[in-house]
Design a protein that fits this description.
Number of strands: 14
Largest sheet: 7 strands, antiparallel
Radius of gyration: 19 Å
Helix content: 25-40%
Distance between the termini: 26 Å
Number of helices: 12
Mean pLDDT: 97
Order of helices and strands: HEEEEHHHHHEHEHHEHHEEEEEEEH
Shape: globular
Low-confidence stretches: none
Strand content: 5-15%
Length: 381
């Protein structure tokens, strides 16, 4: 641990709670293969006052996509999957209704033309089988590669079902085989077990408080609050927590999540390297639709990862960092994790207060600036 960095980031977390409307937070960071920060602050459950500690678990929303992408990349490295093969090669039922040419690469880069589920009941969301059947019956909104748009939830089902078909194993079991098992992670789940030693540690999602007027940010509107509250209520439900939602449903703490990105180091982490430098180089080339479109809120998206050097188009913070080689993923409301090869730095932020897009990355910016200042890393491209 780096005492200076630990103190600086802890102070940043308390500042975020006092001024940005945050409630409960964790941050972990690995620099040059060593844990330099593992800290937390705030309240895990506002209803009971249960505090956050290092073992609190948080719903990480679309941070999940980074882990799902890593699983796919690992399977490609071994020849189990291939980027430019159609999903229907492994999942024949998916090829119906003009979807036979949609490839793994199209899905990883959000260019598959299946941005949203249509006519899907909320009860079906935790089931990969149910959401997969929905997409078997779907008709694409555009031809593969013709445009680009964020596949917020369909991303996970498309890739998750292909992984299951190609490996013959449940997606959650493949995550354990490919990521959490090799790294010895016990607190990164794609579907939590029915075990109070796990479920009692999960933080309650809720809408953030308003930021301090002195910061110049407008408060959360009634419309924004209603939308975020709906998301919080849905994902606080035990069925959602227990289900397999590879795009948005993983639950973890920061200290385990950061090891996923720390193991992207060329030298590995604890003897484990998740992806080769060649795979990472290919996964961090930015993609666009043939019409020039990118996803609605970020300018640089690779194969499953957000790439650094581009601002969040709603809040203006450059994510996951100003360094163009950095890669990772945000989660709804402001959680985020990433790795930068040039700085050999992995960072994870987990949280339970949900913010609208225009506010959601300011806590990350505060944390990253405090961390980099403490480590003597210039926070610029």
């Amino acid at each position: 641990m780096n005492p200076h960095a630990q103190s600086a980031v802890t102070e940043a977390l308390h500042q975020a709670i006092a001024t940005l409307g945050e409630t409960g937070l964790q941050v972990a960071a690995i620099h040059q293969g060593e844990v330099v920060v593992d800290t937390f602050a705030g309240i895990a459950d506002p209803a009971t006052g249960r505090p956050v500690d290092a073992n609190t678990l948080f719903t990480v929303w679309s941070m999940s996509k980074g882990v799902t992408a890593t699983v796919v990349h690992r399977l490609v490295e071994r020849g189990v999957l291939a980027y430019d093969e159609p999903l229907a090669r492994w999942w024949p039922a998916f090829g119906a209704h003009g979807k036979g040419n949609i490839t793994v690469r199209h899905v990883l880069s959000h260019r598959a033309g299946l941005k949203d589920f249509k006519n899907l009941s909320p009860e079906a969301m935790p089931s990969l089988q149910a959401t997969g059947h929905n997409l078997e019956e779907a008709v694409p909104d555009w031809a593969p590669g013709a445009s680009m748009g964020y596949h917020g939830l369909t991303f996970g089902t498309l890739l998750g079902r292909v992984v299951e078909e190609a490996t013959g194993h449940a997606f959650a079991d493949v995550v354990r085989a490919e990521v959490t098992g090799p790294l010895g992670l016990h607190d990164l789940h794609c579907g939590v077990p029915n075990d109070p030693s796990v479920t009692d540690r999960i933080a309650t999602l809720h809408v953030a408080g308003d930021p301090s007027p002195s910061l110049g940010h407008a408060g959360i509107t009634a419309e924004e609050r209603a939308s975020l509250q709906g998301a919080a209520t849905g994902f606080n439900h035990p069925a959602m927590r227990a289900g397999c939602i590879p795009a948005a449903g993983m639950i973890a703490n920061a200290r385990d999540f950061v090891r996923h990105y720390g193991a992207m180091r060329e030298a590995g982490l604890g003897g484990v390297r998740l992806l080769t430098p060649e795979t990472i180089a290919g996964a961090t080339v930015p993609y666009f639709g043939a019409d020039g479109a990118t996803v609605e809120w970020i300018g640089r998206m690779g194969l499953g990862y957000i790439i650094g050097g581009s601002p969040h188009l709603q809040c203006g913070v450059v994510i996951p960092s100003p360094w163009p080689d950095s890669f990772g993923h945000t989660g709804l409301g402001g959680s985020l994790s990433m790795y930068s090869p040039s700085r050999d730095l992995a960072v994870a932020l987990t949280k339970n207060a949900l913010m609208p897009g225009r506010l959601e990355c300011h806590t990350w910016d505060l944390v990253m600036r405090a961390l980099c200042n403490a480590l003597g890393i210039p926070y610029e491209a």
